[in-house]
User: Which sequence fits this backbone?
């Protein structure tokens, strides 16, 4: 039997109850077993970094992942359900260093690399366990005993096989380059690591410096830089050939700079000569630190560079190839001296005079004072600009000349593009964005001078320089000449892997592995191969590759995970690593700011789950346009919570009456015998199934939510309200059971559609409506099959008719609101106007429904709205301004004088209207005007979507009396609720009132009794079980009510 459900709901308690039941009944594994051996749906999880507890922002992507896997499971697909944890890299190292109180790499080496690596593993194990519990709380169904970890042997050795393929194609090389470098972490960062979250707005001291020109007494190039520390490594100054430069007398000194930057000069000035940039090429100058040893023998000249800008600075750029990536490339082009400047910690190397040994972060004042002593400092200025920082420890990066290992991307570029085009990108602009990244990407820096990470299997012979790359554990064992016994049985990490030495394949000398570890994006990029057992079980890999679907945050991953997946799969098999990708935007706080712990605006996952419930969180994420940033806040989620409460209220309404009447859902009536209203709802229900299936097949969850929310509104505010009396009546006639059957079938179908989205609430409802009630039904909604749309029940004409009625009712309510008249107050007449003959037919044929909903006595369909209101046209200045400029006001006056009816008709037919003038013609379009009906006294007019409602607001004495009685009904039913009477309880009522209200009540006593379930009404007041004084339109009323089942009064 269906039990009556409490209308009050505690989402959090409900969720914990359902979680416990799933665990006890092993529901997830029952689902896996049910679908085992069926057609496969292969989902690949982008690994979450196992380094900290989840924040609420992590739940967006994980909600999508669970929704689509649950949906596919209801469609019967066999799945892997494998979660992933990202484990290796700087993000973990930095946190472990904080735990241990370390500040430099030397602290790690002193502590011991083996112990440090184990600490990193411990942290990963700790937070992967925490994230697992959090994900379970979210309702995220995964095979948690089979999660993959990127530090696993399988993952690391599969990356080795990838690197071996790169090596065999000649793509791996060791090169010197100027790389973004974190002096605190002592490692470089690759281009795609800093391109997403690596730039912040920082204020820096900038300096304008005078470079003395050789052979031109008292003449200087004026140079500007925001990185004063790089001046000691200057080797050239760059100008642009076609920029206009000037020679300026400035307070007795002659300086050269771009003409457009003269405003940067201080004091009196006089332009002596105009030049082009090309006129300065080849001029020699003295660098400001010419005295330091590293500058000895270097000739400093002006060179040409197309990238010079006159938008800021002076139009003359100081070039230090050892301190900047663009400078480095320019240095290679011109064969300039390249001065290596900093060590791993950001300290100046030997050869920089007094600067040697000083840290780059501490030298600005020394440099400014030195320049000032030499009379080369022109001025200092603080600037705010976007500058790269280490995305893990937030230290400002420097650009440092280093030896690193790279994968050459030029040979792969076109192949990766071709693979990328085979994939379905959502949003569609994702393809263009990814292709643009591939077009401009540089060689991939794959090495890190750190400790916890992939051991790069690169062996560089110190004797002959030959490089070997090992492609597997088996190959390493075969080629090992020493150390294998010390390594065997351990994971391929530092320091144990470094015990193994091999013989150089060229000269035969013993060779050690390079000390570097791999870029951590190698770890995540290989997972379509490692997790699907590419090297160990090709049959399994062929079954599940390529994955059907992935989803992650697009802004963060199109340069990172998506890119590495594409690049590595292109090398491995020249195939797409996934078929469909849904990239979602970012979660920000309620004010639109990025969420950060340091800003104090991040929301821990548990806090949100225990405050609002995870079903509400999931609804918020599912209903959000995935391509727009989501502003997350508790207040903003209230609207979604209310929508869930609408579902709950409809359900509790049903259970209230179903429990009273012992409704049996196994004995249902034929649909063909049911009312038009029932068939309308079933048509809407089956249409929703059809549309939701299509949208989820296309991974468009937001569209499902929009359609479902509209359906919920129709279900609650139309079907249930229109059917209330069918459930209320005491007789168990066939009409009541038509209503029961229709609402039952629609609720069960709806919760199946919503089951992947809000798994807890739907499970709770299912357990009362279906579990143990329907013969042969599964024990869980999540073990149910996805509903199939019955096309024969989808009646487009019927839906259009009822939708027209709803539209008319909404217009009528809007007219009431405009006149400030509640629906409880009966009114005499409402008029409708529409051009549509179909709508006119519906308004006439279904007028009784409209009148009942609006509490109006008469409905008239007009042929001409001017019978009640005059159409007015108003100019829209926002559209007129851009089109007519200073003449917009004149055009507005012309519009006001037009025949509004004629203009509206022409715009409706043609979309434009031409005003003929003596010498010109003006075209008016829809967006340039708005129309409104100017209502007459006693009429409230509202229009929308081609339909107009004109409501008579005249109140006769009879209408007033009816309104008073309806107000009394409303208040008495509220008293019943306050008294906690059951909806089926019959009552005796005692009233004390007089005057017009007493007259109205006696006149409509039968109506009052029916509406409040009163068996008797006595006008000699006595106290009942519940008593209260109320006021009805300035009339005081004393009311006492008691249930007829209570004891008789003494």
Assistant:
């Amino acid at each position: 039997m269906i039990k009556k459900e409490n209308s009050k709901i505690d989402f959090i308690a409900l969720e914990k109850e359902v979680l416990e039941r799933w665990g006890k009944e092993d529901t997830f594994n029952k689902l896996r077993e049910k679908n085992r051996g069926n057609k496969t749906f292969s989902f690949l999880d982008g690994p979450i970094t196992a380094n900290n507890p989840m924040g609420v922002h992590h739940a967006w992507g994980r909600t999508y992942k669970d929704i689509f896997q649950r949906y596919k499971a209801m469609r019967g697909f066999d799945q892997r359900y494998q979660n992933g944890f990202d484990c290796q890299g700087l993000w973990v190292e930095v946190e472990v260093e904080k735990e241990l109180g370390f500040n430099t790499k030397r602290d790690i080496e002193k502590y011991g690399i083996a112990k440090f690596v184990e600490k990193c593993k411990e942290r990963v194990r700790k937070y992967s366990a925490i994230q697992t519990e959090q994900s379970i709380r979210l309702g995220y169904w995964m095979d948690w005993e089979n999660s993959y970890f990127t530090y696993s042997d399988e993952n690391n050795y599969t990356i080795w096989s990838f690197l071996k393929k790169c090596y065999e194609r000649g793509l791996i090389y060791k090169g010197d380059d100027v790389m973004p470098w974190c002096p605190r972490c002592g490692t470089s960062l690759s281009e795609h690591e800093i391109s997403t979250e690596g730039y912040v707005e920082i204020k820096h001291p900038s300096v304008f410096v005078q470079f003395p020109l050789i052979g031109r007494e008292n003449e200087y190039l004026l140079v500007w830089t925001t990185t004063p520390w790089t001046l000691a490594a200057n080797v050239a100054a760059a100008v642009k050939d076609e920029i206009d430069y000037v020679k300026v007398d400035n307070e007795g000194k002659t300086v050269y700079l771009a003409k457009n930057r003269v405003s940067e000069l201080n004091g009196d000035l006089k332009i002596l000569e105009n030049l082009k940039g090309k006129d300065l090429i080849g001029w020699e100058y003295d660098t400001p630190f010419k005295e330091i040893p590293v500058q000895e023998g270097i000739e400093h000249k002006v060179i040409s560079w197309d990238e010079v800008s006159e938008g800021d600075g002076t139009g003359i750029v100081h070039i230090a190839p050892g301190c900047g990536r663009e400078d480095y490339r320019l240095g290679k082009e011109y064969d300039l001296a390249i001065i290596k400047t900093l060590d791993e910690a950001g300290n100046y190397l030997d050869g920089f005079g007094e600067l040697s040994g000083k840290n780059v972060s501490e030298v600005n004042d020394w440099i400014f004072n030195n320049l000032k002593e030499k009379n080369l400092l022109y001025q200092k200025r603080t600037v705010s600009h976007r500058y790269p920082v280490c995305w893990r420890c937030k230290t400002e990066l420097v650009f440092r000349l280093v030896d690193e290992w790279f994968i050459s991307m030029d040979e792969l570029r076109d192949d990766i593009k071709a693979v990328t085009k085979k994939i379905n990108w959502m949003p569609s602009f994702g393809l263009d964005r990814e292709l643009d990244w591939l077009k401009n990407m540089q060689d991939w820096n794959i090495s890190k001078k750190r400790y916890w990470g992939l051991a790069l299997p690169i062996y560089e012979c110190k004797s002959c320089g030959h490089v070997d790359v090992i492609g597997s554990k088996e190959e390493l064992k075969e080629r090992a000449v020493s150390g294998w016994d010390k390594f065997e049985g351990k994971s391929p990490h530092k320091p144990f892997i470094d015990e193994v030495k091999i013989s150089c394949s060229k000269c035969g000398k013993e060779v050690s592995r390079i000390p570097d570890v791999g870029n951590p994006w190698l770890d995540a990029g290989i997972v379509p191969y490692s997790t699907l057992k590419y090297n160990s079980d090709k049959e399994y890999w062929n079954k599940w590759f390529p994955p059907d679907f992935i989803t992650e945050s697009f802004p963060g991953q199109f340069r990172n995970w998506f890119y590495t997946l594409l690049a590595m799969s292109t090398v491995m098999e020249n195939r797409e690593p996934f078929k469909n990708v849904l990239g979602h935007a970012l979660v920000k706080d309620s004010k639109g700011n990025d969420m950060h712990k340091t800003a104090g605006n991040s929301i821990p996952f548990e806090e949100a789950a225990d405050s609002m419930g995870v079903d509400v969180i999931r609804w918020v994420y599912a209903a959000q346009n995935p391509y727009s940033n989501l502003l997350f806040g508790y207040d903003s989620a209230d609207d979604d919570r209310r929508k869930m409460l609408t579902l709950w209220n409809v359900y509790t309404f049903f259970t209230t009456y179903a429990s009273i009447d012992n409704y049996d859902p196994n004995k249902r009536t034929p649909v063909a015998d049911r009312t038009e209203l029932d068939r309308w709802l079933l048509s809407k229900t089956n249409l929703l199934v059809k549309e939701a299936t299509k949208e989820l097949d296309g991974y468009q969850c937001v569209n499902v939510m929009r359609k479902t929310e509209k359906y919920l509104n129709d279900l609650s505010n139309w079907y249930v309200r229109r059917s209330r009396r069918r459930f209320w009546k005491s007789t168990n006639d066939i009409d009541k059971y038509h209503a029961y059957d229709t609402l039952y079938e629609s609720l069960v179908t709806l919760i199946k559609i919503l089951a992947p989205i809000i798994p807890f609430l739907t499970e709770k409802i299912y357990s009362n409506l279906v579990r143990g009630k329907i013969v042969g039904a599964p024990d869980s909604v999540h073990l149910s099959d996805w509903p199939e749309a019955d096309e024969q029940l989808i009646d487009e004409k019927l839906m259009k008719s009822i939708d027209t009625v709803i539209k008319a009712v909404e217009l009528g309510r809007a007219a009431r609101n405009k006149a400030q008249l509640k629906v409880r107050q009966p009114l005499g007449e409402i008029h409708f106007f529409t051009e549509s003959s179909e709508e006119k037919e519906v308004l006439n044929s279904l007028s009784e429904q409209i009148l009942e909903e609006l509490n109006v006595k008469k409905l008239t369909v007009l042929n001409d709205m001017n019978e009640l209101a005059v159409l007015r046209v108003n100019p829209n200045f926002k559209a007129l301004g851009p089109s007519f400029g200073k003449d917009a006001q004149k055009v507005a006056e012309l519009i006001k004088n037009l025949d509004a009816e004629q203009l509206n008709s022409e715009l409706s037919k043609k979309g434009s209207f031409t005003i003929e003038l003596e010498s010109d013609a003006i075209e008016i379009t829809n967006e340039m005007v708005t129309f409104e009906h100017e209502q007459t006294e006693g009429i409230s007019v509202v229009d929308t979507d081609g339909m107009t409602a004109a409501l008579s607001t005249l109140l006769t004495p009879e209408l007033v009396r009816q309104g008073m009685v309806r107000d009394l009904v409303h208040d008495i039913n509220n008293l019943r609720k306050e008294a906690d009477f059951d909806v089926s309880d019959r009552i005796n009522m005692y009233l004390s009132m007089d005057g017009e209200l007493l007259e109205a009540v006696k006149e409509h006593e039968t109506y009052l009794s029916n509406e409040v379930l009163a068996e008797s009404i006595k006008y000699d007041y006595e106290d009942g079980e519940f008593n209260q004084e109320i006021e009805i339109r300035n009339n005081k009323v004393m009311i006492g009510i008691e249930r007829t089942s209570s004891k008789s009064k003494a």
User: Anything to note?
Assistant: The radius of gyration is 38 Å. The chain is about 40% helix and 20% strand.
